[in-house]
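debug: dumping io for the single-chain case to check the tokenizer round-trip. Nothing else runs in this session.
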Amino acid sequence: MDIGFVSASCGARWKAFSLPRFRQQIRIAALGLNSSVLAYIERMRGKDQRGLDLAGGVQPTAFTAVGIFLFFGAIMASLAATTLLWQGTALDRMWALNPAAHRQLAPLDGTVGILFLLLGAALATAGIGWFRRRIWGWRLAVAIIAIQVFGDVVNCVRGDWLRGGAGVVIAGALFLFLLRPKIRAAFA
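debug: decoded output
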């Protein structure tokens, strides 16, 4: 049989054939799933694709920057926890950047170190949810930034106007960015 003849006669059918779609149909038939389950699967696929559009024009750069910020915070919190739980290591030199904080936190070593580890885990979890466009990732990010704004307001009330004020402005701007309807709409 001539291969050219076979490919010419099957050309129209071959173009309509999709191997991944065929595999999915085989799996569904093998599992005995009904058409309502198939419709649900198709709807869920559509939801996942909508989240990638970044909800009507939100800048992907800003969206990515927030996710990177969450992971950066997770790394920094984990480093702080490590230096507080295991004092006397080479990592202790990083406290030269903020010796006042080290003086306040060092006596609380174990307790505050574990809290910093929990903060690092929460930030990493929020970052994962953020990049996967999950609603729980957005909620966790909003909660973390809201707590940061509250802490900065407390610093202002205690009299640390420079750090507290700068923190309120920066964290407040990030908080307002997260609460924008276009950002919220990007999460499934």
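debug: round-trip ok. The radius of gyration is 26 Å.
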